Records
---
Amino acid sequence: MPEGILCNRTPINTKEHLDAVLGDKGGKQYYQEMQELDVDVEKLQKSLQDTCKSRIRTWLEICAHCGLCADSCFFYLANRRDPTQVPSYKILTTLGEIVKKNGNVDNAHMRYCMDTAWGKCTCCNRCGSFCPYGIDMGVMFSYLRGLCFSQGFVPWEMKIGSGMHRVFRAQMDVTPEDWVETCEWMAEEQQDEWPGLEIPVDKEGADILYTVNAREPKHYPEDIAEAAILFHIAGENWTVPSTGWEQTSLTMFAGDWEGCKMQVQTVYDAIERLKPKRVMGTECGHAHRATIIEGPYWVGREDGRPPVPYLHYTEWLAEALRLGKIKIDPAKKIKVPVTLQDSCNYVRNYGLKDITREILSYIVEPGYLIEMKPNKEHNFCCGGGGGMNGIGLYRKQRNTGMKVKRDQILATGAKLVIAPCHNCWDAIRDLEEVYEIGIKWSFLKPLIIHMAIIPDHLKPQEEEEEE
Amino acid sequence: MYNFITGPLLWLSFIVFFVGLGVRTVLYIRGLDWRLDRVAYRAYPGLGIKGALSSIIHWLIPFGSHGWRAKPLYTIIFFVFHVGVVVTPLFLLGHAIIMEERWGINWPTIPMWVADVLTIGVLIATVLIAIRRFALPEVRILTTLYDYALLLLTVTPFVSGFLVVHQWGDNTFWLYTHILSGELLLIAIPFTKLFHVVGYFLSRAQIGMDFGIKRAVKAKGGFAW
Ligand code: SF4
Ligand code: SF4
Ligand code: SF4
C-alpha cells in the first residue's frame, strides 16, 4: 500500500510535516507521488457505510438524467456548454461510481474525482435550486471532497490549508501572539487620526465578540483597523479573542471533517470563555458558512445554531446604519454605477439577500445600483469559491469559470462591484487582472468609513481647537 | 388467464407496489441523519414543515419555481406527461368499473374524451422527451439505455390501453399487453428510479427542510424556489 512522503492519507498535524509539504514548491513532488498513491478500499468502504446515507444515495439513484441542472452551473456555461460540465454528469461519474462500485475504485478514478470536486465545482449550491428533486451537487461534492481527503487525493494547497488549521487553528501561520500583536499595532497606528481607538483583546462580557479571516492579520491588517474604526464610530462595546479569532475554515474546502470540528470548536470555546452577548464575523462568506451555518453540526450542537447569536458583518452594519449608530454623509453617497456580488455562502445558503441591499440603500445614491441578473439566492458564484482561488493546479479552470461573472458585471455597466466576501473580492480582483474590464471592487468597510459622519468627540483634538 | 392476471396477479402487483413504496419511505426517513446531513430536523418542526411544503408546492405547479420558469418548453412537456400519467389510470372509467365490480368501491371518473386527450398528450410528450434525450448534448451525456427502458415501460400501458379502448388491432393481445405491462410498471416502481413517485416528495421535503431550518433562516418568506 504505497503512500508518498508528502502525499499520503495522514493529515498534517505537526509543524515539521507542514513545513515539509510547504517546502515542495507548487506541489511538484506531491502531485508526482499522488500518481502512485494507492486507494485504501477498505477504509473507503467503511466511510461509505458510516456516512453515505439515504439522502445522498437517493439523490444518486433518482436523478432523472434530465439535464435541467446544466444551465444552472457557471462552469457549464463558461466552458461553452461542455456536456462534461453538467452537474449531474460530474457527480455521477465521480461519487456515483464510488458508491456504485462500493469503493472498489483505483488511483486514476480518485484523481479524476479530485480534478472534478475541486476543479469543476465550487460547491456554490446553485444547481440544487434548479433541480426538480432538489439534488444539490454542492452538498455532494463537499461530501466527495471528504472521501478524497481521507484517501490523500487532495490538492496541495488544500492539504496545507487543512494542516494550517490543525497546527495553528488558522488558515495561515498566524499564532495567537502574532494576532494580538497585529491588533495592538493596528490600534496604535490609528491613534493620530482616531485618538482613543482601541482593539480590546479578551474582554469578558462584551456586547460583540469579533472574529476574522486569517488573511487579515497576515496580509491585510488594515481590514482589522477599519473594523475597529467603525466600531469606534458606532460606539460599540466590543472585543476580539486572543485564541479562537479565526473564523474561516479551509478544512471545509479541503474535506477535512475532523479539522472542521477542531477549528470551529476553538471559536466556540472563545465564546464560552468570554461570554459575549453576540458574536460577529468579518466580511467573509465561507467563514460565515463554516462557523455559523455548518459549524454547529460539526461540533454536534443539536439546535444547529452557534452558542450565542452570531452575525455576519453585513447584519451588524445594516443594524448600525438603521439605528443611526453610524450616519452617512448624504453628499458622499456613491454616485457611480455600482453592482453587488451576492455571496453564495451567506445569501443562497443563509438568506441575507435583503440585508446587503438595505445597506446599499443607505450608501448608494438612488438609481446608481444596478443589479446583476440573476441575483440574490440565484446569483452565480464569483468563480473563485470552494477554495478554487487558492489552487494553482486549477487556475486555468478558475479563470475560464470567471467569464460568467465577468459577463454578468459587464451587463450591468457598473464601474464598482461591492463584494462583502473575501473570496468574492479576490475573485473579482483576479477577474479584473485577467480580463481587464475596467472595474473597481471593494468591501463595505472602506466605503462606509469614507462616507461616515464623524461625531465631533471622536475627532482629533487639534482639529477641534481650530474650529 | 384473464381472471388470473386481473385477480391474484393484480393483487400481487398492488401489494408489491404499496409495501415496496412503504418500506422505501421508512428506510429513507430512517436514513436521514441530522449530523451527517447537517440539518436539525427535530429542533425546528415548524420551520421544517413550512420549508418542506414550500419546496414541494413550488415545484408541483407549472412555472411555480425559478427552475421551471427557466425551461418553459420542457416544463410544458413535463407537466403534460406527468398529469396524463397520473390522472388517466387513476380516474379512467374502465378502471373504475373494475373497482366497482371487484371491491364494490365507487370510484370517481373522468369523461372518456378527457382520458383520450390526456393519453395522447402522454404519447406526444414521450416522443418529445425521447427526442430531447438524444438531441441535446447535455441530456444525451446523462442518458443511458435504462432511461429509455423506463420510458418504454411507463408508456406501454398507455399505448396498449388506448388501442384497447378504441378497438384497434388485435383486442385480446392489446388487452393482455395492457394489463401485464401495467402490472409490471406497478412492480417496477419501488425498485427503480420510478420510485420518484414518492421519492420526489421525500427529496423535495428534505431539501425544503434544509433551507427552511438552516440555509434560508434569514430570508423573509423562506427560500425563493
Ligand atoms: S436536474 Fe436533477 S434530476 Fe435532472 S439531471 Fe440534474 S440532478 Fe439529475
Ligand atoms: S455546486 Fe455550483 S459549481 Fe458545483 S456543480 Fe453545482 S452549480 Fe456547478
Ligand atoms: S467565493 Fe463568493 S460567490 Fe464564490 S462560492 Fe464563495 S461566496 Fe459564492
---
Amino acid sequence: MSRTPKSSKPSDKGQALKPSDVCVIRKILKDQILMPSANPFRGSPKEFADVLSLFRRAMEHGESNSALLIGPRGCGKTTLVECVIEALQRDCLAFDDSVIVRLNGYVHMDDRLALKGIATQLQLENTLGDKVFGSFAENLSFLLQCLKEGDREHTKSVIFILEEFDLFCHHQNQTLLYNLFDVAQSAQAPICVLGITCRKDVTDLLEKRVMSRFSNRQIHLYPHATETFEDGVKNRIQLCKDLLSIRSDNKKHPQLSVRALQLWNTHLEGLFVNPIVVDCLKDMYAYTVCERSLRNFLLLVICRLCDDHLEVTPTDFSEVSRQMRRNLRVAFAEGLSILELCLLISMMHQNEIFDSAPFNFEMVFARLLKFDQHSSKTMTVDRQVVVKAFEHLKSLEFIRPVSTSSQVLKEFQMFNLMLITDEIREAVNNYQGLPTEVSQWAFSDYT
Amino acid sequence: MVSSPDIPDVLCRHQEVMQLVSLLGHPGESVPQSIFLTGHKSSGKSYTLMKVLDSLNIRYASVNCVEGYMPRLLFESILSQIVGETVPPSARCENIMEFILQLKIIADNHDLHESVIAVVLEGSDRLRDMNPNLLPALMRLQELSCLKKVCVILLSDVLWDKFAPSGGLPPPIQIYFPQYSQNDILKILSLDKPKDYPADFHSNYLQLFVAVFLRSCRDITELRYKAAENFSKYCEPIERGEIDINDSGKLWKHISPHLKASLQMIYMRFETGKKIATEVDSGTSMDKHSTLSSSAKYALSFELPYYAKYLIIAAFLASYNSPKEDKKLFVKLSGRNKKKVLKKNAQTKISSLVMGPRQFDLERLLAIFYSIIEEKPHISVNLLTQITSLVELQLLQKAGSDPLEAPKYKCAVGFDFIIIIAKTLSFNVTKYLVDYK
Ligand SMILES: Nc1ncnc2c1ncn2[C@@H]1O[C@H](COP(=O)(O)OP(=O)(O)OP(=O)(O)O)[C@@H](O)[C@H]1O
Ligand SMILES: Nc1ncnc2c1ncn2[C@@H]1O[C@H](COP(=O)(O)OP(=O)(O)OP(=O)(O)O)[C@@H](O)[C@H]1O
Ligand SMILES: [Mg+2]
Ligand SMILES: [Mg+2]
C-alpha cells in the first residue's frame, strides 16, 4: 500500500490536520456513510410526500389504507420509509398513539411467525400466549381488538410495514395478506398496510380475493430512470462530496475544532475537481448505479486515513477502485497450482474444439496427457492427483455440472467451464514462474 | 485521545490485516454490515481473521456452515459464543426471527449496543444450500436487528459472483486473500522448523520439497503436513549415522523417491498412505513400488478374488464395447477376423473410453465372462454373490431401480484400474477393446 509521503502535506505547520483530528473525522465520516440515522432521504419528493400523507392520515384520522412501494434494490425504499417515520415523530401529535409493526419477508417466513412478530411488536405476546384460537383471522382481530381496550375511546392506529413484500405472497393461502387487506378495506380497525418490494410484477402474485381487497395504490421509486448519464455522474460526485464533507453546523462533534473542519472541507473541494477522482467515480457509475457499492467504496477510501496518512488523496481513490474492480476469477486462476492451471487450459481447448459442448474428466484428462507427452519435461500427471485437481476446480465452481444426477460416475459427469478463454489466458500471462511450454500451449490455436 | 489499535503480526498478510483493522479496529466507529473474505483454501483467511479479532478484543462468534447444517444449531452456537456460555433452553432458536430476538435480548442484558459483535461464518458458500432466506437475512443482520455494531463476516473460497444470482444480497466489503507465492510458502513452512536442526538445513530441505510439490499443490495445510512427514524421512539416515548432515547430494538421492511417492498420495491421508510409505522403506520392494502409480495401489488394495477380477474385466468390456461387436470379439474362432475388426474400428476417432460406460444386463456380462475366462468356473461358485459384493465395493454400479425389470449394471472403474487387474491375471484386455488405439 503506498501511503502518501510526508512531503505532500501542506508545508505550513499550522495549516495541517493533526492525527487526533483525523481520528475524529474518520469516525464522523464512517457514521455518515454507514449509519442509517445519519442519512436523510434525498430526491423523489413526490413519493416521499405520498408515503408521508398515507401514514399521517392513518395516524391522525385513523384512516385505513394499503399501498405498495416498489423500486429496485438499494434505491432507498427503506430509507424513505424510515425518514417518513422520523418526520412524523417530529411533527405529528398522534405519533405516540400509533404503533408501527415492521415485518420482513426474510424473517417472518410463514404466517405463524408473522403473527408472533406482530404480537411481540404490539407487546401483546403474553396475551396471545394464553389463548388458543382457531383461525388466523380470529387471532389477528383479537390482537387488533386489544389495542381498542385502552382507556381512550379512540383506538390506536397500527401501521404495518412489510419489507420484501413479494415473499409474503408465497405464504400458504396468503392468509396474512388477505386478513390485513381485509381489515384495512373494511376499516374494522384503523390500520395502514405498506408493502415494500423490488418486484414490479408483484401484484401478479396476489390471489384474486387478496387483490380485490388491496387498494391498488402503487408508489414507484425509480430515481435513476430518467436521468442522463452526465447528470447521473454529476449527482454522484455531489453525493460523494456530501457524504465526505462535515457540516459546519454540526454540534455533535465538540472534539473537532472549527479550523480542522474548515481545513477538511477545503481539502475535499480540491479533491473532487481532480480528474483522477472524477474518472474513478465516472467509471464506477458506468459500471453500477448501486449506492451501496458507492458507500462501500467511500468507506474503503476513508479507512485508509490513519496517523501517517492524514488526507485522502486521488491515489486512494484509484487504488480502492482497482481493488474493487479487480477480476477475481483471474486472480483466483493465478493462485492455482500449475497442474490445475494446465487442466483449465485443457478445458479451454476442449471448448474451442467442440464449440463449448460439455466435457467430462476423461476428455480433459486425455487432452492433458497428450500435452504432457509432447512436452519435454514430464510433469506428474498421476491420475489420482489430476482427479484431485479437477475436484478442486469443481469446488471453486470454475466448472459446473450440467446435471446433478447421482447415476453418472464421477469421471463421466459432464461439466461446463465457467471461465472464458480471455480470463484463462490473462491468468497464464500473469502467472509467476510458469514453464514456457505451458503458456505456449495456452496460446496455441486448435481451431 | 484515540489510541491506535494493536496490530497482530501475521506472516505475508500485512495488507489484509491492516484492512481488517481499519474496518473493525477503532472502538466507537461504525462497522460495515458485512465483510466477505475470499481466497483459495488455506490462504489464511480464518487464521488471519482470528488473530485480528483476538488482538482487537472483539466479541465474536465463529461457526462453520458445513457443520451447522441445521439453522437452529447455527443460531444457538452463535448466541452461546457471544454470551460466552451455553444458551439456556428458554432461548431456543428455531428460526431467524427468534435468533434476532435473542440477539437483541443478549445485547440488552450484556450492554453490547456500543461494542462490536462479529459473526464469523466459515464456509459461507454452504449457506446457499440452506433456507433461501437465511443468507439474505444474515447479510442484513445489522438492519434487521437494529444493532448498529453487528458485523457479519463471511469466509469462502468461492467467489462472490457465485453468491449473487440468488438475488437481493447487499454487496459486502470484499477482502481478497491472494495465493501465497513460492517465497511466502517457504517462509510459512519454515515456521514449523523442528528445534534440533539448524535453520539453513531445514530451509535447504524445504527448497527440495517445494520444488517437487508446488506444481501440483499450493495448499499450505497440505504442504505443511507433507513437509513435516517427509522431513522425518529426510533426517532418518542422519540419525542412523549413515549420511553426513552436510552431504546434501546424498540426502537428495535418499529423499527424492520418498517425495515422489508422497506426492502421489497428496490430499489422501488414509491408511494406504502409511502402508505404501512402509513399503518404500523396506529397500527391496522399493524400486518396484515407487514406480507404481497411486491408481495401481488403489486397484490392488481391493485384493479381489480370482473370479471377481474376471467379472470386473467382463463388466468393463460390456460397458465400453457395443453389444454389436460382442460376437466378433468373443467367438473364439479365427484370429484373422478379429484383427480386421480391430483395424477398422481404430479409425473411428471419438473413443467410447472418454464417453463413459453404457449399461448392460446380467446375461451379457456372464456371456462375456465365460468367453474371456480360461477355465470354466466350478458349478458351485456363486457368481451372483460375487457380483453383489462388487456392487457393494462400488466397483460395479447398479443402474435402474425398477424391481420388476431385470437389473442393469455399469462398470464403475476406469481403464487404468482394469489394466492393473488384468496384469495380475496376465490377461490382455486391450485385445478385446474395440476403441483402444
Ligand atoms: N434517495 C436516497 N436517499 C438517501 N439514501 C439513499 C437513497 N437511495 C439510496 N440510499 C442509500 O443506499 C443504501 C440502500 O438504501 P435502502 O436500504 O433504503 O434501499 P432499499 O431500497 O430498501 O433496498 P432493498 O430493496 O435492498 O431493501 C442506504 O445506505 C441508503 O442510505
Ligand atoms: N500467514 C500465515 N502464517 C502462519 N500460518 C499460516 C498462514 N497462513 C496460513 N497458515 C496456516 O495454514 C492453516 C490454514 O489456514 P486457514 O485455516 O486460515 O485457511 P483458510 O483460508 O481459512 O482456508 P479454508 O478456506 O480451507 O477455510 C492455518 O491453520 C495456519 O496454521
Ligand atoms: Mg430495504
Ligand atoms: Mg477457514
